[in-house]
Amino acid sequence: MASRTLPATATIDLIGEDLLENIVARLPAISFASAACVSRSWNLVCDRVLCRPKLASACSYNPSLQVAVEEVVNRVLLEPIRPHFAIASVGPSFDLQEAHQLITTKLGSQVPVITNDPSGIIGRDAFSEEFREIQWEITEEDDDPDAPLVLSDSANSAIMLIVGFLPGLKVKTIPLLKKIKEPQIVKIDKFVIDIREFSASVSGCKSPAAIIMFSDFQAGMKAVMEKIDYALSPETVIVGDSGCLFQYTDGVNGSLRNTTVTQHVSAAVALVIAVDKNRPPGLGETQFHAVLSSGLSPVGPTYKAGSVVEKHSDSMTWLTARREGSRENIDGETVLNQVYDELGDRIQFPTFYIGVTKRRKCTIGKEKVGYITSLAFHEVLGDNQEYFFVGDVGIRTGDTFRFYHSDSTTALSSAASVSNHLKSLNQGTTSISGSDRWEVFGGLIFTCCGRGESFFGRSNIDSTPFLDNFPGVTLGGTFCGGEIGRGGLTPYVKESQEHNLVRCCLHVYSAVYLIMSYTPIKRI
What we know:
The protein is α+β, with helices and mostly antiparallel strands. The protein is 24% helix and 35% strand. The longest helix is centred in the last third of the chain and has 19 residues, at 408-426. The chain is globular, with a radius of gyration of 25 Å.
């Protein structure tokens, strides 16, 4: 009697689902995706393997862009993962648009991808597994201020790729548009409304779970973040970089963005993450937590803005000041001399800022007008006999402010506080009642380009709080031109009861951590 030949799938099914699950769990992502398409039963097994959120990251320092992209993509896809989003950060020796196109081609046009050019990258080498914080080596010719910047190819040929899988959530890139022609109006209200409409369509709630944002220096992020902070629930965590160039793919029709859209250009892009109201039953809860390490220390008394002259063409404000409780205006030179006297020689080359408390009217579209009180930092640029000068505009007569200076001692102390906070997360002390203990599965870090080894005197200070508390957990990040951070610790504004409602979303000399955790449903 002739033996009957079984189909290959049936033969493999006979080995049992447990063994099949063990096998497919060891496959790289592309082979895993193919296995999930074999049959319905195989798909269900693959769903069991990949039922929890996952973050994968890798860095490459290969001088060839094509090879570097190949290395990081192969590394993040080494294990089963279904990319829901990707963030790539490239060094200045690489072409931003070319890098974006290569990564998008590798991951597929349906994956939302943001590629940016930060001031450095933070992450684990794809081959050596060494964790490094790398800042670009950029120098100027001292004898010729007009000479072009000199880039060190060996130090600046780098790329970091982060890929995330978030079951039960939806992810979308949403641009902040700016008119190309004068006046270059930034469409903030549309940006906020687009975020709320996407979140409402996905989750039934206008506020998403988290936003990861990237913007260029000209986006006017102080005004943008004030409106976003006003419009969204305090539960929405927001992090990012407010000083970089970027490209993005929307993940819907696979088109490359950040170039001209009709009469507008993208000044910023938000990776919006919202809970899916139609998510399958049995999924646990993915949560996002923001924590801040500050590198600023206050100096001197609190002042009020006296005379205010805005120089819009130079994005600068000229100020005089008066002490709180006094009507006498103090000229700019005198104010700065008082600050220098107060500081003494404690720090050799500090960078100064004023932290301005602003209470402003705010509304979105035709909605009812409300108020928001925010803290905004402006870098001190210099003085003359009458005024001192700070970067950016938006300060009004009567606004209160205080001087701050960059301080590595404060930053080290703050990093220790962050480590203690993360330790409590690691111990699950704030776990949801009635659930299993949560687990941290990944993290992102956005740290100021003024920090790093030159600031602290040793390397990897900002990444240490995460690495010490969550060894083996994926962490990736960048050095920024301006850190976006909403939620978490706010050390600048806890000095008095009056500041309880003051919020700060744009930071300087800080490190902003986004911690991603997952709480499975407790099985009875």
